[in-house]
Amino acid sequence: MKHYSDLEYLKLSKGKKLGYRVASFFTGIPKAIWNFIKKIGNALKGAGLKVADEAKDIVGTFIKGDWKTKVSYLIMGFGCLARGQILRGLLFLLFEIVFVGYMVLYGVYWLRMLPSLGTVGPHEEYNEIYDAYTTTYGDNSFKILLYGVLTIFFIIAFLYTWRVNVKQNKLAEQILRSGKKLKSGKDDLRSLVDDQFHKTLLALPLTGILIFTVMPILFMILVAFTNYDGAHDGYYSNLFTWVGLKNFNTLFSWSSGGVNYAATFGEILAWTLMWAFFATFTNYFLGMIVAMMINKKGIRVKKLWRTILVLTIAIPQFISLLYVSKMFAKNGIVNGFLMNMGWIDKAIDFWGETANHGLLARVTVIVINIWIGIPYLMLIATGILMNIPADLYESAKIDGANAWQQYTKITLPYMLFITGPYLLTSFTGNMNNFNVIYLLTGGAPTNAAASGAAGSVGFTDLLITWLFKITMGPESQYYLASVVGIMVFVVIAVISLIVYNVLPSIKNEEDFQ
User: Fold this and answer.
1) Is residue 259 helix, strand or coil?
2) pLDDT single digits (tens) 111-120
3) Which structural domain range is residue 308 located in?
């Protein structure tokens, strides 16, 4: 592809400029991927050097440190206690006691069972009291996996705390050599609400993120490498075990048990991206236009129009979407009205027509989503439009700019600059928009070509609704749902990284300051 200089680019027509930007974007993808791989390599290299430096510092501290520091390598907090820092020493020592106690009583067992995820499943044993065979439950694969992950996190936390303990001893020695006084317990407590207050505030949220966000994500990823499903629930029926990359091979196989999972996944992914694109940008531009129309000078009862639109989002979607779904049914109000008016001879099957890959149902859900989404964008755009300086429009009118030129040169660039991050989050949110699809169509109409795949795949199913269906029913293929969940994350992460780095809000922060 020919590369133009800035001057040559400015001389191009609008169509050629657009084509050049599109071509530049796609031709730049391989380079961007290569740069991303290089960044990962550099990050791994940096991490390796960091680990080497830490190891060197640990050894050096032990060799050069006094006997108090050396003992602290085995008994955490000993150096702090010996030097009069009682509070720090007790906290370090208490953490080590709790860790050792947990590992002896529970941790070693969970780590030992983690490679197998259990060896003794439910089995029948003779019960002398009842004079009959009863089911005896053995290991619990789910608990083994969960507590095994918790134990690994606890070990990482202990190693980090141990490293902090070593650093504290090294720092204390340096302070004492310089003739200064070490901080007392009161000084430590005072610093928690003074110079270290940011750490105090962040401690609880970070702990919550680790426990309720990071760990569930890691657990979900690990489930993708097991055979966890309805027949292998890990306790009541059968234990589940590690299966390696088998589940990924199933999803990306063109023929797995007579089902083309790769084609099914590709079709659902394509529709998910298509849905997210139209659901995002139709709402964005139409909501902006509605806001501009309501804000236009001369429009009366503006508050009334805004209130009418807001009523759409004031009613819970669970109610409104189910009602709209019934309206568009074969025996619903829409078909009844069209037939009474004589515009159609027979009812239109909005949710059951399979022609053209369920095109009618897909278009219908996009249109209904416009009705739901416009009020949000109208409210957002209203606030932003009021902040655009009126002088810009006055100057544009003096220069002879018409309404379209004012929109494309002033309004739209300003809106895109302010709402760029919102557009990205809206796009990713629409990719995981479970409510609209599931409450309106339930994924219908059924995709006969993919009927053998896990879950009842429909033409309007998104990846998120397909994932939900996979986990429902007697099969409950959680392992396959985990694989799909991982792929959803990968797709969204790649799109987010690419788009985020080309947003005007990020690249040209100073343009509208």
Assistant:
1) strand
2) 999 999 999 8
3) 274-446
